[in-house]
Amino acid sequence: MLPATALALGVLAALLAWPVPAALARARWPRRDPLAALVCWQAIGLAGGLAIIGALLVHGLAPWGHSLPEAWWHWVTRQPSAEPVRGDHWVAQTLAAVLTLELLGVLALSGVRTARTRRRHRALLELLVRPGASSGERASAEETLLLDHPAPVAFCIPGARPLLVLSSGMVAELDGAQLDAVVAHERAHLREHHHLLLLPFVAWRAALPVLPAADRAHDGVRDLVEMRADDVALRSLSGPDPRRTLAVAIVAAAGGAGGQVPEGALAVTGGPVAVRVRRLLAPADPLPTRARWAALASAVALLLVPTLLLLLPALL
Amino acid sequence: MASLGELERTLMDRLWAAAGPISAPELQAELADRGLALTTVHTVLSRLEQKGFVVHDDRRPRRFAPRATREAHAAELMHEVLGQAGDRQAALARFVGSVDAEDAAMLRELLGGGTAAGPDATGVR
After folding, report:
1. Which end of chain B has the lower number of beta carbons within 10 A, N or C?
2. CATH number 1.10.10.10 given to B4-66
3. A272 vs B contacts (CB less than 8 Å)
4. CB neighbours (10 Å) of residue A37?
């Protein structure tokens, strides 16, 4: 029973480490339904970690029992193993422990570091900007700050007291409807906690620099939360052509600071900004309901398969 | 009662406006109209020092000075926002990343495809 389980988990881990993320990163349907695609990415990340660590554990603990829960219990209570323990069992155990600690540790570290950066940004902003400078009639949960700087920039700092920051360059460049679109986009990030969706992928890209899938997954999630925020923003915008209003705002913001920024996260022609603008100007049909449910069901299945592989042998 | 953030901002404004390092009693005197206790001034100054905005010298009484100009702090913040390298990407959500000049031109062309309007004349309203 056990070797087959370990093998199955290993195969699943291999699939999730390369072909599956590659296929999802290449697919075109995610732009039609960013939310469903975001759920899929989260499932891939979780299931991938579960599968690889599970495979190592199942193999490493094989001498102690016929199912993982049983073997784990025997191992924890220091009962003698039923079969001789070979070197590869110890290696698998060690690898499982190291990988678990690394993934969780890097996630925690990344979270702490991010929180510290946010705190510093917030402190700087509170010192540089008088609150209420621009909020005007836009009363809402988060505070809006107007930062005196010529580059057209808008961003939000998530947290318990979220901040929404517009630069004076942005305000000068855009008209009222476009500014509303920018604010609605940033508010969508805050309301749907997109920073939490992105955080594990930022962390795991740092933890697994040799894995191309970690890069793909991070970039995929980063671009999808932007598209999702665009979609949510459109719902709250009035006016004759909100799609075009938002697209104009995006182009104005992207073009204004161009050239001055050496480390622009986006440099390739036809990159994520162009994709965003295109899907606003020429929207594809939304994903059919059946396809959407299929995507969500696959995400659930991805999580269920490793979980069942780990637990079922105990019930048989 | 003014908030702590408001007090920090007021004190920093004074320090930035001052010609040189300035002691806590002098700051208190300058802000006499606000009726601050000297301990309050010290509390706010030490908070600002912890955050890395203020440094002090070794004279008695200690004199305080801003670590950098207001412009330098603004530039530091914008550099991080615009640069957004590595793990900073998770710290804030920026509306649009930067693109190079070529891409910016291509984006404007995309917009032009819809109506004859340029990026400034949007055809909205």
Report:
1. N
2. yes
3. 97
4. 24
**Which residues of chain A make contact with B11, given a CB cutoff of 8 A?**
none
Determine the distance in angstroms separating the CA of A8 from the nearest CA of chain B, rounded to an integer.
34
Helices (H), A61-193: 68-76, 87-128, 168-173, 176-191
* pTM of the full structure: 0.85
Domain-by-domain residue ranges, chain A?
2-260+267-283+294-315
Chain-centre distance for alpha carbon B54: 13
Average pLDDT per block of 10 residues along chain B, 125 residues long: 78 91 92 89 93 90 91 84 57 76 80 52 37
Q: Running DSSP on this structure, what letter comes out for residue A163?
A: E
CB contact under 8 A, A265 and B89: yes
Provide the shortest C-alpha distance from residue B71 to chain A (in Å): 9
Helix (H) or strand (E) holding B56: strand B54-56
pLDDT at B92: 77
Q: In chain B, which residues have their Cβ closer than 8 Å to the Cβ of A131?
A: 5
How is chain B split into domains, by residue range?
A: 4-66, 70-114
Q: Decide if B38 touches A, using CB distance below 8 A.
A: no
Report d(CA B124, CA A175) in Å as an integer: 10
Q: Do A263 and B85 touch (CB under 8 A)?
A: yes
Say whether pLDDT at A127 is over 70: yes
* A36 DSSP 8-state letter: H
Measured between beta carbons, which residues in chain B are less than 8 angstroms from residue A110? 87, 90
Query: Distance between the two ends of chain B, CA-based, in angstroms?
Result: 45
User: Would you state the structure tokens that stand for residue A286, as one six-digit string?
Assistant: 């939304």
CA A85 to chain centre: 40
Q: Which member of A155, A182, A257 has the closest CB to residue B98?
A: A257
CA B98 to chain centre: 21
Query: What is the pLDDT averaged over residues A68-85?
Result: 89
Q: Which residues of B, range 14-33, sit inside 8 Å of A by Cβ?
A: none
Given a cut of 80, whether residue A131 has pLDDT beyond it is no
- What average pLDDT does the segment A273-286 reach? 90
Rounded to the nearest integer, the mean pLDDT of chain A is 87
Highest-confidence range of A38-47, A253-262, A266-275, by mean pLDDT? A38-47
Q: If pLDDT is split at 50, 70 and 90, which confidence band does A140 have?
A: low
Asked if A117 lies within 8 A of B110 by C-beta distance, the reply is: no
